[in-house]
Amino acid sequence: MASLYILIAIFLWSSLGIVVRLSGVAIHVLIFYSLIISLIIQGIILSQKKYRKEIPDIKRLKYAAILGCFSLLNTFTYFYAFKHTTIANAVLTHYTAPIIVAFLAPLFLKEIITRKIILVIVIASTGLLIMLGGFSFREGHMAGIMAGLASGLAYAIIIIFLRIQAQNFNPLVLAFFSNAVIAILLAPFIREFPIKALWSFLFMGIIHSTIAPILYFKGLQHVTANRAAVLGYLEPVSAIIFSMLFLSELPGLNSVIGGIMIIFSGYLTLKGSK
Q: Which of 83, 111, 205, 241 gives 20 to 30 Å between its CA and that of 25?
């Protein structure tokens, strides 16, 4: 069941590209107002008596603040990579995260790197490489590539950090306070409220900033960091499916072959997760 929580969260997050494309607003504006919606919803829930007792003292809230900072770093560097290098380079560098997690997990979580984990990372990485047509280096792309690597490192740190702290926080509490930190950090850069994009704020606030992170945090209470990282490879596959359904973007043969390999790696991961 815990792996299912993570899979559902990944599936929901994979629709982000569709919302960004259709919203027509700057990404920091989109993130900020969607977080405001999520904070209103989560705040109403947390105001109920049975949830108020789950709110930790101020000293422990520093962990939610740290999570918020790394989440913002992850998001901005990822989207910066999209703007300053190819989509393939951005995604491939971002998904160095599972490889980084494989090295960090034994140090910080005492998780053993099994041959099976190594195998599924190799299969998923190869599938992603095939799906995106390979890595390419062109003049002027270094900033985007470095940003993609930074987003991968931030993503890996988030997974490790959540695995450590997930047992100490109610998922709703962790989501609320980490979202609050991101909103505070973005507030000085907001100058407008594009009413035409209200639908996207509502959609992201409910789906991407409330339901998905709560499910992901809940799943990481029981799923190892390595498994969670590998399951993250399924996000670009789901994103392609969404683009087919809503943008009529048909995938090529490489996308199909790479997607099948990634799905197979996910199957191997889930098969041993009981």
A: 241
Closest of 159, 153, 185 to residue 72, by C-alpha: 185
Q: Measured between alpha carbons, how far is 188 from 29 in angstroms, rounded to an integer?
A: 11
- Which bin fits 133, alpha (ψ -120 to 50), beta or left (φ > 0)? left
Residue type, position 69, single letter: C
As a whole number of Å, the CA-based R_g of the chain is 18
Q: How confident is the model at residue 8 (pLDDT cuts 50, 70, 90)?
A: very high
Q: Is the pLDDT of residue 161 over 70?
A: yes
Amino acid 64: pLDDT: 87
Q: What is the mean predicted confidence (pLDDT) over 199-222?
A: 91
Q: Tell me the pTM.
A: 0.83
Rounded CA-CA distance 13/35 in Å is 14
SS3 for 3-43, per residue? HHHHHHHHHHHCCHHHHHHHHCCCHHHHHHHHHHHHHHHHH
Answer with the residue of higher pLDDT: 185 or 166. Answer: 185
DSSP output for 150-204: HHHHHHHHHHHHHHHHGGGS-HHHHHHHHHHHHHHHHGGG-----GGGHHHHHHI
Q: How many CB atoms lie within 10 A of CB 72?
A: 19
Place of tokens 């996000």: 235
Identify the CA nearest to 216 among candidates 235, 201, 203. 235
| CA pair distance 131, 95, nearest whole angstrom | 13
Determine the longest span between alpha carbons in the chain, in angstroms: 57
